[in-house]
Amino acid sequence: MRTARIFINAIRTLSFKKIVKLLKLTVPHPLFTILSFLATVKTFTIAQNHFPKTNSNSGIGNAFRHALWTSLILMYCCKISSPKKALEFCKKMTDLHEELFPNEPLEKEMDLHNNKIGMNLFMEMLPGIHRQFFETSFFVEQLLTKAKTARILKNIDEDYGNELVFLDGEENWEEIPAHL
Question: Radius of gyration over alpha carbons of the chain, in Å?
Fold first, then answer.
């Protein structure tokens, strides 16, 4: 119920022009859109369970959530289409999200970087696993491990490589399961 309320409130904030942009992406790709929505709901739930304190701010949980989000969008969309088409849609959808719901420049860079980490993770795993056999747990475990080495983003121009990045100085490492 909480997740539905978040989506409804987010849509209410959009101007007519932004709604048109969203429709231009989603209407031609109804199945990708539905699967992306399902990936979004699942991501919110998983991130809330693993990172109850930092999934909705600029902390480690948010970094985890963005990377998981893109991984799951790709996982779901690749089950009905090619990885190339799924990747193109995922990038357009997640970049559009940043345009529709703008943040400060550092926050935007953090989100875009972590989105890229999730897309890269999926594409790196793709050759070793048939795309029909991907499971959510594959990404959760990998990204929880990456969360342990997440770095604080301080400069837009710095290269953070394949590391998750976050902004909050309060790192909340205790949220990351100790067994990883």
Answer: 16
Q: Alpha-carbon distance 64 to 144, whole Å? A: 7
Show the CA angle centred on residue 93, arms to residues 69 and 16, nearest 5°.
Answer: 125
CA 71 from centre of chain: 7
Taking only the tens place, the pLDDT of each residue in 111-148 is 999 999 999 999 999 998 887 888 999 999 999 999 99
CA distances from 170 to 50, 133, 151, 166 (A): 16, 37, 12, 10
Other Cβ atoms less than 10 A from the Cβ of 48: the count is: 15
Distance of alpha carbon 89 from alpha carbon 59, whole angstroms: 26
pLDDT tens for 57-96 read 899 999 999 999 999 999 999 999 999 999 999 999 999 9
| Number of CB atoms found within 10 A of residue 5's CB | 9
The token pair at 180 is 């990883």
Closest CA to 111 of 42, 177, 59: 59
pLDDT tens by residue, 17-30: 999 999 999 999 99
Question: Which residues is 46 bridged to in the sheet?
Answer: none
Report pTM. 0.90
